Give the backbone structure.
Amino acid sequence: MAAPAADVAPGGRRQPGPVRIRRVRSVDAAVVAGYLGLAVLLTSRQWGRPDRLFHQDNDQMLFEWMLARAARAVTAGENPLHSAALNAPDGVNLMANTSVLGLGVPLAPVTLLFGTQAAFLVAVVVSLAGTATAWYVLLARRLVGSRVAAAVGGLVCGFAPGMVAQAGAHLHMAAQFLVPPILALVFRPGTDRVRRHGVALGLLVAYQVFVGEELLVFLALAAGVFAVAYALADRPAARRLAPALLGRLGVGALVAGALLAYPLWFQFLGPQHYRGMPFHARGFQLDAASFTASARQTVLGDGYLPGLLSPNPTEENSFFGPGLLVLAVVVVVWLWRRPLVRALAAVGLLAALFSLGDTVRVDGASTGLPGPYRLLAGVPLLDLVVPARFALICVPVLGVLVALSLDRALSLAPAGGGAVSAGPGSGGGATALSGTGSEGGAAALSGTGSEGGATADRPGVPVRLLWGGAVAAALLPLAPTPIRTVPTWPVPAFVADGGWRAYVPAGRTLVPVPPVTGAGVSPATFWSARTGLAFTAPGGYFIGPGAADDPTAHWGAPDRPTAALLRRAAETGEVPVVTDADRRQAVADLRHWRAAVLVQGGLHRGEAVRRTVDALVGPGREVDGAWVWDVRPLVG
């Protein structure tokens, strides 16, 4: 493998080793510091603001609770796959929810020392900057000789509009830092040490399951399409590398299967498991026009058009703008001889088509044309993923294409200059995501391989400037802005300071009012997270079975009549007529929840809810910023 361009002097002489090492380390450190700084900037509207949450507040509450639960599992030695802190008395199957244990366990010290909000923000920063860094490392080591090209490619992969949109709510989708090392092991150079790298692959895959299973499904699909497309483009390399690749996959499957056997059994057959999804995933699709539009969280974005082209602000995964898409087409045409580019184009195009859902829409109107997603309707696992998220596969595809094009432009020698090395693998043949391959093609994930290296005696400077300007013009409109926040009701001092402990004996629960059991904002989840799971509560924001004898997926716990009555009061602001039958039902529900005290904090229609509870169980009283109803005399 040839030396990177940064390691070769203009005259073709290798620079002294110590100088080269210091130079590379300083550049790499600067790139990573830049990624971290940008990630911190994007989360700046919430640091030190406990009264603010990112705009998808329900999702942040959920992930704060998951981080608190992971810390509790570490310190108390509790089962990390199940929790009884919510949904009393049945609990929650955490393996069947987005528990992000792969983030929560390492961040346990942050959660315990600084609280769940700080831990969530650190997780967002790590997800964005870590993803960008991982792609930067892969690009710099395998694909390009220019650190500038690798840095820009990593920037696209880590901070594209879809990544920023997901980061404000869905940690399991934004934390993609394991994707590049998994790909590096699957498509590695050479055919030696198959077992060793297979074991490493199995360990990484198992870890990814505890970060996000949905992302792993997308990764497997994209890697499979890439492998087939590359094999068709470069059959000799595919035949040579296939045995080792299949060997690594086999060993990795055995290792991951052994590690994940019990967690997956618990997920699909354990307590509180469920089947399907509580929403119609197929309805979450993207509009074809969204690919050329601007996302909300960009310098040119607005809050109106994206709302028409995507399911919600978190799923703005395809908003690349016209400039980047035109640039990608030019790169594919320019570098079409490279098998890597052809394979990437196939992956990106297929992912984009899948994101359009069952029926293609353009500018909000249905075209009546069937979408390729219909082909996945009966495929296990794939039929449960959100179609709009297929567009996230396009993000690293575009990032790698941008990096390859910049590296190719920068490798052109100035007029009158001698030839310079184009980077790793430049003098050799084709390689897939793996290494040198056939007789004279382009390199893939192991070197730039730009059709025989850099070209001497060409007017390279104008090309560098023109292409650099084109890349800048395409990427600047996508520059992200700080993630939007919304105000939230604070945790009542009665709960935060522990005043509730005088009312709740062991084995009994604190019932936040309303005890939301659907997909609405859940005070139980938020209060539990911010107090470190100090108390047990019914309800919560999670996915569980519809009933004890019905495993159909359902948001939260199955509705109890009293919970539904209080939720209607909170949603409408109207006090319902409360009958004696309602009061008897309330006592039965409180006994089911093992309730000791009802607590109401801040609510937009709090007066209607308070009066409804008064009518059900008798008048409450205000204690430390909360309305409190001691129901122990009622439930015994």
